[in-house]
Amino acid sequence: MKKDKGGRYSGIGGQAVLEGVMMKNKEQYAVAVRKPDGEIDVEVDIYKGIMDGSGLKKAPFIRGVFNFLDSMILGMRTLNHSVSFYEEEGAEETAVDKIFHKIFKEKAENVMLGIVTVFSVVLAVAVFIALPYYIASLFEAYIRNASVMAVIEGLMRILIFVGYIVAITMMKDIKRLYQYHGAEHKCINCIEKGRPLTVHNVMRSSRLHKRCGTSFMFFVVFVSIIVFFFIRTQQPALRILLRIALIPVIAGISYEIIRLAGRSDHILVRILSAPGMLLQRLTTKEPDEEMIQVAMASVEAVFDWKAYLKDTFGYEIDDSWLVDQAPEEGEEDGI
Questions:
Q1: Which among 49, 12, 36, 72 is positioned nearest to 295, based on CA atoms?
Q2: Would you say 11 and 271 are in contact if contact means Cβ atoms under 8 Å apart?
């Protein structure tokens, strides 16, 4: 079997949802959820994106903006799908639900999803853009150097970002979500390392991956520090407006970096990816075998991993290889 130490790009990606995993391959995605009765429900659908057919979706730096929005929309949609399995039976429809269904009819769910997505963006801007600027501005009476102020604002942004991640890891329900996040990464790493997709092989794969959303968000924070460093204006309101206006630029640059990280194992790329990989130790946890089975079901619904291994690593999968073996000491991958 031919293996690749750094892994080969497969094109699949995903996210954790409530008691499950979503995997996406091109326009097709699957959501696998462990239902309360223990069975695995798998739903497969198509999501073409908000700019389907537009050449802008392939333009460097611009495509990152649309990919970011698409990931948010699809993420909310699949998360809502997983939550539906755990909603209380007989729960009454709220007044807001009734109003939305009356006004928007069959489009009510999409409208609500759009509102939640917009609210999430506004909240993120307030917490990670406006708040660090406000805290840093409290030092202006003591520090007159614009470059030092920019560094302080950047440090505040990093501290808030890391603090947010640490805070939510303390929530009990988040731990299981992070375990499914780890299961998602392990499945992708297993395939991209050239191994047959079995529970044993997935379990011994790394839970860290360079194309993770956590790493992307770190790059957003890091790139924003560099970009905002060059904004030199004395008007506070204009500073905030410029920071908001530059969010698409920052997202576009960050997407190109994470895209490169997923396709290259160069030492410089590994160094650049190291902080995001370190943060993933907080946002991913080791899953159990049942979680791995859910993640595998999601992968197999949208991705022909046997054909991928044949085309990429040059060998065909024999069914006898799919029988799990006892783990060998020290087999787990490192990144």
A1: 12
A2: no
The pLDDT value recorded for residue 325 is 46
Phi, psi of 286 (to 5 degrees): -70, 125
pLDDT for the residue numbered 1:
43
Position 93 scores a pLDDT of 60
**8 A C-beta contact, residue 184 and residue 75:** no
Q: Which residues of 158-167 are buried (b: 16+ CB within 10 A; e: fewer)?
A: bebbeeebee
Residue 175 dihedral angles phi and psi, to the nearest 5°: -60, -45
| pLDDT-flagged residues of the chain (< 50) | 1-4, 90, 324-331, 334-335
Spell out the residues 6+ positions from residue 25 whose beta carbon is closer than 8 angstroms to its own: 11, 12, 302, 303
Handedness of CA 257, 297, 172, 82 (dihedral sign): positive
pLDDT value at residue 326? 40
